[in-house]
């Protein structure tokens, strides 16, 4: 582990033009690690091309993050970067259209904490024990002796609390609190992060939440609580999909269930499926069987079927996983 960290620090020191990116469908950890590292590299005098594969899907609750004005659109890159850093991506497809740039770069570095990481780069700084990619970035920056500072700490702290569900999920270790403590010492704006991420939902989303919760069904056979969001719901309420990231946590909270699923109808008719589990039950293998991936207790995939079809597909996969017919 230490060896990879040193190799990444060295690769960064030696590079002049560095591209930084993170996964499609961004979340608190992908954005926190991405913007935090972007700020660090800039303050070290690097030319940084920082871009998201899907800038239009930037969730509004992360607009406050420092460093967001340094983001460029994916098509804007000129030249070949000496180094490309992929953050919070278990495989190269997670980079969407930025995959080509990653493959053309002088050197590719993979920084991640997914257990199903494909180790797709010459240098893989991958630690499935880490709470978040933001935690790994913090250790990298600290280990290299680079300055952290309040803005970077705010970004990284956001990644830690969102990926651990505010220090609640099984990936929360004693070490996680140590990292949070050090980020707090660096000046992370803890109350602002809490307020922006968890207490700033829009009125349209609040109404959409009502509609979605009203529809929750439980299939006792599988201990599954599920609901869905249609394009019509979005049009009717005025809410957008990126702001619905936390909605599934309400479903996971239903007593007596062991997993939750939310089916989200996309513009092209496909369905984005989010899975979360309680306790030791693992949804990662189920998402992988359906073409996606993720962690043991938080995973997802995109189904080619419609809403009804994708529910049937999930139930088939659960039956299969149980080994029955
Ligand atoms: P989501 O429900 O979209 O928030 O995703 C939950 C977790 O699953 C995150 O850790 C994602 O990185 C991971 N994940 C979601 N979709 C995919 C996918 N298509 N391939 C690999 N990992 C995914
Ligand atoms: Mn992520
Ligand atoms: Mn993550």
If strands are numbered along the chain, what order do they take across the biggest sheet? 3-2-1-4-5-6
CATH architecture of the largest domain: Alpha-Beta Complex
Radius of gyration, CA atoms, in whole angstroms: 19 Å
**How many strands in all?**
12
Helix content: 40-55%
Count up the domains: 2
Q: Which sequence of SSEs, written as H and E, runs from N to C? A: HEHEEEHEEHHHHHEEHHEEHEEH
Number of helices: 12
- The percent range for strand residues is 15-25%
Pick out the low-confidence regions.
Answer: none
Main sheet? Answer: 6 strands, parallel
Remind me, CATH topology of the largest domain?
inorganic pyrophosphatase (n-terminal core)
Mean pLDDT: 96
- The top-level CATH class of the largest domain is Alpha Beta
Described by the principal axes of the CA atoms, the overall outline is globular
What is the CATH homology-level superfamily of the largest domain? Answer: inorganic pyrophosphatase (n-terminal core)
Structural class: alpha/beta
Query: Separation of termini?
Result: 43 Å
| Ligands bound to this protein structure | adenosine monophosphate, manganese (II) ion
Describe this entry's structure for a reader.
The protein is an alpha/beta fold. It folds into two domains: 2-198, inorganic pyrophosphatase (n-terminal core); 203-321, Diaminopimelate Epimerase, Chain A, domain 1. The chain is 40% helix and 18% strand. It contains twelve helices and twelve strands. The protein has helices at residues 2-14, 28-43, 99-104, 133-144, 149-163, 174-186, 190-198, 203-214, 231-237, 247-252, 284-289, 307-322, and strands spanning 17-22, 47-51, 71-72, 83-87, 107-112, 123-126, 217-219, 224-229, 259-265, 271-277, 293-294, 298-303. The chain has a six-stranded parallel beta sheet. A hairpin with a 5-residue loop joins strand 9 (259-265) and strand 10. Helix 4 runs antiparallel to helix 5, helix 5 (149-163) packs antiparallel against helix 6 (174-186) and helix 5 packs across helix 7. It is globular, with a radius of gyration of 19 Å. It starts with a helix and ends with a helix. The relative contact order is 0.11. The model has no long low-confidence stretch (mean pLDDT 96).
């Amino acid at each position: 582990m230490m060896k990879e960290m040193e190799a990444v620090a060295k690769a960064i020191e030696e590079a002049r033009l560095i591209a930084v990116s993170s996964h499609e469908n961004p979340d608190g950890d992908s954005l926190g690690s991405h913007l935090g590292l972007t700020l660090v590299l800039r303050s070290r005098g690097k030319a940084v091309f920082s871009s998201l594969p899907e800038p239009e899907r930037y969730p509004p609750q992360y607009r406050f993050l420092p460093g967001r004005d340094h983001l460029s659109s994916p098509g804007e890159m000129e030249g070949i970067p000496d180094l490309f850093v992929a953050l919070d991506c278990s495989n190269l497809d997670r980079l969407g259209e930025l995959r080509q740039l990653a493959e053309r770069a002088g050197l590719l570095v993979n920084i991640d904490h997914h257990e199903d990481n494909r180790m797709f780069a010459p240098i893989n700084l991958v630690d499935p024990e880490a709470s978040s990619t933001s935690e790994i970035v913090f250790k990298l920056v600290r280990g290299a002796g680079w300055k952290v500072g309040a803005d970077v700490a705010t970004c990284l702290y956001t990644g830690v609390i969102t990926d651990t569900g505010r220090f609640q999920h099984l990936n929360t270790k004693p070490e996680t609190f140590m990292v949070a403590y050090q980020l707090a010492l660096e000046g992370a704006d803890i109350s602002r992060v809490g307020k922006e991420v968890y207490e700033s939902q829009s009125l349209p989303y609040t109404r959409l939440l009502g509609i979605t919760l009203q529809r929750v069904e439980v299939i006792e056979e599988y201990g599954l609580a599920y609901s869905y969001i249609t394009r019509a719901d979005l049009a009717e309420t005025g809410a957008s999909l990126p702001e619905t990231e936390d909605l599934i946590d309400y479903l996971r909270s239903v007593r007596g269930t062991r997993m939750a699923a939310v089916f989200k109808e996309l513009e092209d008719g496909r369905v984005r499926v989010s899975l979360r589990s309680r306790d030791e039950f693992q949804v990662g293998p189920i998402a992988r069987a359906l073409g996606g991936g993720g962690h043991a207790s938080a995973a997802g995939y995109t189904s080619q079927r419609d809403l009804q079809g994708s529910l049937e597909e999930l139930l088939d996969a659960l039956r299969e996983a149980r080994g029955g017919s």
